[in-house]
Amino acid sequence: MSTLRLEIVTPERKVYEKDVNMVVVKGVGGELGILPNHVPLVTPLKIAPVKAKIDGKDEYLAVHGGFMEVRKDKVVILAEAAELGHDIDVVRAQQAKERAERRLTDRSTELDHKRAELALQRALSRISAAGGE
Ligand code: ATP
């Protein structure tokens, strides 16, 4: 089965570099499945899990926004933060989720709504990626 090289890079490190059969991402315009020889494209990504298909198996990564560049046999994702599903600390993500939910429902405090909303999305994405979804 043909493959393409998937690289996921953050300012701190290269989180992922593997030959995969397919990459599924959530772009700002919707879900995109990238196969080898896809037309070149650049798109911003949502805060959502990225799925890599390798020999019939799926690997999930939590990728927190950023951009994807598709070239002939290569997909590069640049994001502020990204974690492989099995590296995710689910307890920490649950705590972050609860903290963000509290902030979003607590009307008594001066609140940065957008910031809490983004923290909630990161936490939900981490929980999904850790659970293989
Ligand atoms: P928290 O409130 O728990 O710190 P956060 O969403 O504010 O979560 P980020 O600022 O997105 O955290 O990430 C900071 C660093 O910590 C990044 O390197 C990120 O990969 C890592 N990180 C954050 N949450 C987790 C997690 N649940 N499991 C593994 N790594 C995590």
From TrEMBL:
UniProt key word Oxidoreductase: no
Single GO cellular component term: plasma membrane
Domain of life according to the entry: Bacteria
Compartments, record wording: Cell membrane
InterPro entries: ATP_F1_dsu/esu_C_sf, ATP_synth_F1_dsu/esu, ATP_synth_F1_dsu/esu_N, ATP_synth_F1_esu_C, ATPsynth_dsu/esu_N
Principal localisation: membrane
Keyword field: ATP synthesis, Cell membrane, CF(1), Hydrogen ion transport, Hydrolase, Ion transport, Membrane, Transport
Domain called ATP synthase F1 complex delta/epsilon subunit N-terminal: residue spans: 4-82
Similarity annotation: Belongs to the ATPase epsilon chain family.
HAMAP family named in the record: ATP_synth_epsil_bac
Biological role: Produces ATP from ADP in the presence of a proton gradient across the membrane.
UniProt name for this protein: ATP synthase epsilon chain
Organism: Cohnella candidum
Chain's gene name: atpC
